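stage 2 :: seqdesign
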């Protein structure tokens, strides 16, 4: 099994930045993709970004393109999400997830394609 721990959330003003981290442990050799999802109060969990284990392939939801950057540290099982130009609508609990399958252009945003999840870290953007 894979265990995931997120960190880096906090409170920032609109236009500010946050950098989230996700550290994986356990059976990391089974990871093909890592991803970030978020859930705002009263809303469903939504896909944010995903990255292949090699870091060569990335996916983003349209609302964060050009503002968020997902990356991997290939020296350790860690993933990051750099969030710039944050908006109040980015306020959510952010969750790290991993998949032991190769994700295609159609299934990468589907939460059921991911089989390990972290506990989440809160990101709050004030206006």
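stage 2 :: out
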């Amino acid at each position: 099994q894979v265990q995931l721990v997120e960190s880096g959330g906090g409170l920032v003003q609109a236009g500010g930045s946050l950098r989230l981290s996700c550290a994986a442990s356990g059976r990391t050799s089974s990871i093909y993709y890592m991803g970030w999802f978020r859930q705002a109060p009263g809303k469903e969990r939504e896909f944010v970004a995903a990255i292949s284990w090699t870091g060569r392939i990335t996916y983003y939801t349209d609302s964060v393109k050009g503002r968020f950057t997902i990356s991997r540290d290939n020296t350790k099982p860690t993933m990051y999400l750099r969030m710039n130009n944050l908006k109040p609508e980015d306020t959510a609990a952010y969750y790290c997830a991993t998949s032991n399958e190769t994700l295609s252009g159609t299934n990468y945003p589907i939460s059921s394609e991911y089989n390990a999840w972290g506990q989440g870290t809160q990101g709050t953007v004030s206006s």
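stage 3 :: structure notes
- The chain has a mean pLDDT of 96.
- The longest strand covers residues 18-26.
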